[in-house]
Amino acid sequence: MALLIREIAQLVDGELSGDGEQLITSAAALSEAGPGQLAFIGELRNADSSAYTSAGCLIVPKSTRSKFEGATIAVDNPKFAFAKAASALHPRKDLPAGIHPTAEIADSAEISEGVFVGAFCFVGENSVVGSGTHLQAGARVGSGVRIGKDCTIHPGVTIEDGAVIGSRVVLKAGAVIGSKGFGFVRDGELLIKFPQIGTVVIEDDVEIGANSCVDRGALGETRIGAGTKIDNLVQIAHNVQIGKRVVIAALSGVSGSVVIGDDCVVGGQVGFADHTTIESGAVIGAKSAVFPGKQVRKGVWAGIPVIPLPEYKRLNAHIRSLPKLRKEVQNLGELVNRLESLFRGRK
Amino acid sequence: MALLIREIAQLVDGELSGDGEQLITSAAALSEAGPGQLAFIGELRNADSSAYTSAGCLIVPKSTRSKFEGATIAVDNPKFAFAKAASALHPRKDLPAGIHPTAEIADSAEISEGVFVGAFCFVGENSVVGSGTHLQAGARVGSGVRIGKDCTIHPGVTIEDGAVIGSRVVLKAGAVIGSKGFGFVRDGELLIKFPQIGTVVIEDDVEIGANSCVDRGALGETRIGAGTKIDNLVQIAHNVQIGKRVVIAALSGVSGSVVIGDDCVVGGQVGFADHTTIESGAVIGAKSAVFPGKQVRKGVWAGIPVIPLPEYKRLNAHIRSLPKLRKEVQNLGELVNRLESLFRGRK
Amino acid sequence: MALLIREIAQLVDGELSGDGEQLITSAAALSEAGPGQLAFIGELRNADSSAYTSAGCLIVPKSTRSKFEGATIAVDNPKFAFAKAASALHPRKDLPAGIHPTAEIADSAEISEGVFVGAFCFVGENSVVGSGTHLQAGARVGSGVRIGKDCTIHPGVTIEDGAVIGSRVVLKAGAVIGSKGFGFVRDGELLIKFPQIGTVVIEDDVEIGANSCVDRGALGETRIGAGTKIDNLVQIAHNVQIGKRVVIAALSGVSGSVVIGDDCVVGGQVGFADHTTIESGAVIGAKSAVFPGKQVRKGVWAGIPVIPLPEYKRLNAHIRSLPKLRKEVQNLGELVNRLESLFRGRK
């Protein structure tokens, strides 16, 4: 969607310098932007590079003396302002309302106004799809599912029976919501499946990555809080409770009944043992592990198992200097032996 | 499926107290169960909480003096008994036999009695689907595939050509069975694919998680033993041999030609280097790694690379106390230096 | 495709001994090969086992004195020669050109000669599919996608809008190419999505594993270089640049804007922090992590964070002997105390 530069300045609440009447049609990286495109400088130290861009407009940090000769919009947080402007310039793909003739919709399903249903989509009995939601090619929605408004369900997503999806939720290609969890009870040699008959609730404005999986509750529910963003190939097990605005990077695994508080940030390839608790605002570094029985407080954590980041760095330094420590102990041993010999020689 | 309380008591071989003639229609968590629902107390120490449940019937450990006033069924292993009863109360979703008009079945494929084939399913040439098996929406079965009885193939599963699937197998949404393995031979700059022309056998009662992958053998076969349960997002490479009743948690990766014996338990995010061997009954802790050339014996293992769990815990304690050790060595050094000065002063 | 033994000898540039006029129809493992099948001995020390195979022809290392009585082909690199011959014996599955009647192809899409489009495939507006490419059942191609010649797109693959795919590319089942990346800007409590409007380029001869994900660029592009091979369940984030002939094993995650040079080899479950750089020819051991800010030079690396392999092994040995070091320090402390007492006793 094209916007005038002054409209963008207004949108991001920034200070406009230069001609605000030019039209901007898209956003681009600083080095690639051309006329009619919006770019940004994230930090003051990058201001010099702005001389070389052909962008139609630059968002810059306040108090930048940019060498750029075109229009600029000065703000406190240029990356945030750029993201906001780019969202307006590049709204969600516009898909025409309507149900593709190849889609299979159960008679009892309720498809609201303005819904796009792509080729080979399947919607089961008694499911409800809210207005403005897109179901892209090959998306599969089970029975008794409730999907809110303006969701974007990418190709090949599977939503199993009874799942509840809020509004403005984005499920990327191949994501699986509401699969039965992984719980077994052993009695001697026999493994019997613990019932996986609960449900799953994905609240508003959640984003779930490509080929990520969110299992339903065993009993009770699995819940992903409003505004939470989950990357690709992440596993969320049965009965997990994730708070609001949590960010979880790719290939992390959250075991059964874990509780993650609001505003936590989780790096890639992190593992959480079942029944652990992460307090609101905790940051868990990539590749780390929360071991069984752990309750992680607010703060920054790293390691296998996680410890506070400063301690992790200190320990790592100690480990790196182990060869030196070993040598010191050896030298000390030799010195002590010499001392002892001298001493005994004196007797 | 509704059951009388006395029928449940009989099913789990438990001691009934109270009115056995009431009807139970479903299973639920202790805190959420209402009249007509079955719940359980796993451990004696939780017996007090039972006073507050509204469940229609409780499964309890033997010798519990529960404050619960309704019917109870006392057993040795309540969780196991509950799982067994819940399986009876919540059988596999009942889907009507028949082939959805949108499904594409090759003329030479053989679909047995009582099979459910959902919308947009595809079954290739010469494949066989056993009686009572469900192929849910969008499942894709290649050519020459054999699927046994009463399997549940969830939406969007892909079974590649020639795979052999036993009976009562559950493949969750997005699982890929029989993809070509990842093997290349390098000659100078050239990477050439090693042939991936073997097959894959999934034995009876196996469960494979959502978006998990099991590659076919390069030459020969990949095999998953009867009763083995694999969680979501797990990678099983070419020519892996997994025994019976093995449990593998999410995001673990098993490299080519690994052998895992019966009854092993593997945590989440574990990695196995190719050609390693895990003896029957071994337990591999989450996040650990089996390095090349390793043969893992029965017992509990942890770490990168894996070592026996007690040793792992000891080493971790040593690592955690490295700052203390460093300080001790430093103090000792100072003491020795003082001693030496004193000694030399005496000479 | 059947070949005469002498044709195979010629193909792999090997020295034929025995009857070259027999027909070979397929490749197999040494222990399983029968008449009419080709097998190989990788190393001289395995030459004895060749006496027991029933293979129709063996590829052997030069200077082997095999006890095998059939035809042999001697080469410098038997595994490579075997792979080359097997590729000829087992060419890509032959699928008849044509578009399945259930497939949905946009009017403006361009499907070249000799393309196979399977059941329930979807191809969006203005997309181009090159000659000889196979789209297997349920593959989904968005709008404005360009796919080269002779690609194999397995079932259930999703290619999002605007992606560019080279020739002879293999995308295995469930792979997702061009999903929007995972980038958010935080302003106080608000998380706003950074634009994910770039593109993705998969060069010639790339292979991408089952259920792996390659995100499009945020701005600019994500690029996978020619001949690179990526295993199952791998995550490639936005704006990653991967060179040519790189090999990446399963469950590895490459964060945003990482640059990996040509001919790198990456083990399984490796993690790369965003904006890190890996120089051409580097080898990163399984399960390791490249931490933020790191530039990895050519060589072999391991650990969390990665260090050169010899150093990693040395450090691991030091860690393993920590209990011994602790004991030594303790003994030394006691000895010093005794010395001190003796010394003070003398005063």
Brief account:
The structure is a homotrimer of 347-residue chains. The first copy, chain A, is an alpha/beta fold. Chain A has four helices and 41 strands.
3D structure, described in words:
Three copies of one chain form a homotrimer. Chain A has 347 residues and is α/β, with parallel strands linked by helices. Helix content of chain A is 16%, strand content 30%. Chain A has three domains: 3-89, MurE/MurF, N-terminal domain (Udp-n-acetylmuramoylalanyl-d-glutamate--2,6- Diaminopimelate Ligase, Chain: A, domain 1, 3-Layer(aba) Sandwich), CATH 3.40.1390; 98-309, Hexapeptide repeat proteins (UDP N-Acetylglucosamine Acyltransferase, domain 1, 3 Solenoid), CATH 2.160.10; 310-347. The mean pLDDT of chain A is 94. Chains A and B meet through strand 22, strand 23, helix 3 and helix 4 of A and strand 4, helix 2 and helix 4 of B.
Jot down its keywords:
homotrimer; 347 residues; alpha/beta; Udp-n-acetylmuramoylalanyl-d-glutamate--2,6- Diaminopimelate Ligase, Chain: A, domain 1; UDP N-Acetylglucosamine Acyltransferase, domain 1; 3 domains; 12-stranded mixed β-sheet; 10-stranded parallel β-sheet; 4 helices; 41 strands; 16% helix; 30% strand; flat
SSE inventory with pairings:
The structure is a homotrimer of 347-residue chains.
Chain A (H helix, E strand, L loop, with lengths): L2 E2 H7 L3 E3 L5 E2 L1 E2 L9 E4 L16 E5 L9 E5 L2 H12 L8 E2 L4 E2 L4 E2 L4 E2 L4 E2 L4 E2 L4 E2 L4 E2 L4 E2 L4 E2 L4 E2 L4 E2 L4 E2 L4 E4 L4 E4 L2 E4 L5 E4 L4 E2 L4 E3 L5 E4 L4 E2 L4 E2 L4 E2 L4 E2 L4 E2 L4 E2 L4 E2 L4 E2 L4 E2 L3 E3 L4 E2 L4 E2 L2 E4 L4 E2 H12 L1 H25 L1
Parallel strand pairs in A: 4-5, 5-6, 6-7, 8-11, 9-12, 10-13, 11-14, 12-15, 13-16, 14-17, 15-18, 16-19, 17-20, 18-21, 19-24, 20-25, 21-26, 24-27, 25-28, 26-29, 27-30, 28-31, 29-32, 30-33, 31-34, 32-35, 33-36, 34-37, 35-38, 36-39, 37-40
Antiparallel strand pairs in A: 1-3, 2-7, 22-23, 40-41
